[in-house]
Each structure stands twice: as structure tokens, then as C-alpha cells.
Amino acid sequence: MTPRHLVAIYRRASFSPQQHLRNDRAILDSVVGHLLADGWEALRIDEQDVEQGRIPRGELYLNMCQGAAAAELLTPLEGDHTVVVNSPTSVLNCHRHRLVRLLGGSPVPFPRTLLIPSAGGLPTADALAELVDEEGTLWLKRGDVHAERTEDVLRLTAGELAGALSGFMERGIPWAALQRHVSGPVVKFYGIADRSFFRFYGAQSGPHAPAPLVDEAALLRVAYGAAERLGLLIFGGDMALPRPDQPVLIDINDWPSFAPYRQEAGSAIAAFVHQLASTRSAA
After folding, report:
1. Domain 4-86+261-282 is classified in which CATH homologous superfamily?
2. Helix (H, G, I), strand (E, B) or coil at 140
3. Cα–Cα distance measured from residue 200 to residue 212, given in angstroms and rounded to the nearest whole number
4. By three-state DSSP, how is residue 67 classified?
5. What are the residue ranges of CATH 3.30.1490 in the chain?
6. Tens digits of per-residue pLDDT, 182-223?
7. pLDDT reported for residue 69
8. Is the full-model pTM beyond 0.85?
9. N or C: which end of the chain has fewer CB within 10 A?
């Protein structure tokens, strides 16, 4: 039997701060290992290779790139007879300025969020009043890619906002997202589009302690509703629980590390993409 070829693309280190670099590489290594056992041949490259136009041919691309440059260069693969997981378009949809537009006003519960230029000064008093919670705070998040360092996502008071925006501007971050805080415990979740794998745990208590009280059907509905809207097949994120039956999505990411569940997640992702590629080749 002729072996099939996959290309595993590892994420740029700047998009995997601190311990996430090791964990991000480990989940992709796990998936590749399972697919090698299924008869695939693998070529491993980095996001920088894609940015430099070095994109080898394959029937399956395991895409962990998060930067706009790599995503744009991979986009032509979406019109080919190949499988790309996650697709470049879905990765770009997770960049916060696109995420806000796609989820704002959608059926997916998502907090009020305002995108502003970092160099454009403060929003109007009325706009700010809609974002500040009962404690006088709001969230400031970089408005492009995911957080690269802790100061990319800050909970602060309205009085601290001007200084923080100046910090964004000085670091060359052009857009900022101002987001209303959602009260209640936070759960972290991980999922695969075919629903063969879905796990969650309390962000404060950790994966080895009981999770906060939550309506699991509602949690699934929000997680998969958001993933489908963005086009994600492998995803994870965070939800706040103002009430157990009313989860609110506060963040979603393309292809997280699945660190607490790596062994079972690696096997499940490999089975999912293997089936996806087999179905595509048979069509």
C-alpha cells in the first residue's frame, strides 16, 4: 500500500509563550506519532518555513500556525484536494479583531467588546460605561493575535486604561479590545469537531479537582457553536459561568496544547484527521 504523506507545521515560538512551547510541540508530536503508526509518512516543518514560502506537498496538513503571514500563504490549500487542520481561514478567524466581529451579535453568548486603535485615545464616556462592571473594571486584550505575554490580557480600572493603551502602542500593537468582565467561575475546555473528544475543568481548581457546577449540554452548545462559526476543527478556550446554565464564551483558540489530556487527545485527534483524510481521498 502506497504511504500517504502529511506535513506537520509547528507553531512559531512567539505564539507559545513560557511552558506552552513545549506543550504545543508535544501534542503535535503525539498526533504525528499515532498517524505514523497508521501508515502515514510525515514531514515536520516550522511556521517560519511557511513564512519563507517553503511549503512541501502533502495530502494532510496539521497546521498549528497562528501568525497572519503563514495563514495567508497556506490559504490556497483550502481550494486543493487536501485536508488542512485547522484551516488557515479558521486560524485567522481566531485573531481577536475578526473573532469579535464573527461572535458579536451571534447566537454564541459573548461579552460586549469594543475594538479601538491603541493610538486613538480613550473611547467616549458612554461607550466606556457599557464596558465597566460593578467593580469599576474591564478587560484590555490585544486586538490582533492571541496573548504572547501576561500584559497582553489585563483586567484594570477605567483610570488605568490610558496608560495600558500607551503600552500597547509603544509595543507596536495597533488594535486593542476592551471587553466587559463576566462574573462567575471560569472553565477551560478542549474539543474536536466530531465530538469524539470534549473535556473541561475549572480554571482555578485545575484538571484534577471537581469542575464548577455547570450545565454540560449548555457548555457543549456554546463551545461547538463558536467552533462551527469560526470553522475550527481542533479547538479550546475559556467560558465564564455567571450561572451554571448560562456559560459565556470569553476566549477560543485554534489547536491548543491539550496538556492535561495529551495522551487521549493525541489519539483522538489522529483518528479524526485520519478519517477526514480518508473520506476526502475517497470522494
Report:
1. Response regulator (3.40.50.2300)
2. strand
3. 10
4. coil
5. 112-179
6. 999 999 999 999 999 999 999 999 999 999 999 999 999 999
7. 95
8. yes
9. N
